[in-house]
Amino acid sequence: TTAIVDCGFNFGPVAGARMVDIVCEKAITANLACVVSQNCHHVSRLGSYVQKIAERDLVGIAWANSSKHGHFVVPFGGREGRLATNPLAYAAPTLQGRPVVLDMATSMISEGKIRALMHEGKPIPDGCVLNAEGEPIQNAEEWYGPPKGIILPFGSPALGYKGFFS
User: Fold this and answer.
1) At CB < 8 A and 24+ separation, what contacts does 79-85 make?
2) How many whole angstroms separate alpha carbon 100 and alpha carbon 74?
């Protein structure tokens, strides 16, 4: 029911697609499966993988983390990035044939979205990021620095979020 896929630090989406095939094969055989990766680069949008699982009439759940170089998210009330955006995704089949998919980060915005906004010349939505001095900004180029800014955790416009207190 389990497998570890060593991705060899290659292109993440190739490994992600292979992991979908492995987990589905195991789940169909054993009714439950868990596949994890090691030595994997960025896999892109997690929702695309769990959607493929749900399209095979299975429920899919995926999480991703990051090495220290991807710790851009500041804990509530903090001053430095200590966490990754830690995305998660879920998908379930429906009777209508189109799966229900949740795909989210545990931060106000993903680093990939900041990069896309920068390339499009668009501002970062207010309340998502701070520059290296802790001031709110909307300019993606400024966020990338140097020095690099920080991303706020999910729920930041409120007075804290599950487990974080000021």
Assistant:
1) 79/134, 79/150, 80/150, 81/148, 81/150, 81/151, 83/107, 83/153, 85/110, 85/111, 85/151
2) 30
SS3 readout for the chain: CEEEEECCCCCHHHHHHHHHHHHHHHHHHHCCCEEEEECCCCCCCHHHHHHHHHCCCCCEEEECCCCHHHCCECCCCCCCCCECCCCEEEEECCCCCCCEEEEECCECCCHHHHHHHHHHCCCCCCCCEECCCCCEECCHHHHHCCCCCEECECCCCCCCCCCCCC
- Which residue numbers in the chain have pLDDT < 50? 165-166
State how far the Cα of 4 lies from the Cα of 54, in Å rounded to an integer.
21
Report d(CA 29, CA 18) in Å as an integer: 17
| pTM for the whole structure | 0.83
Tens digit of each residue's pLDDT (9 = 90 or more) over 21-54: 999 999 999 999 999 999 998 898 999 999 999 9
5 by Cβ neighbours in 10 Å (0-12 / 13-18 / 19+) ranks as middle
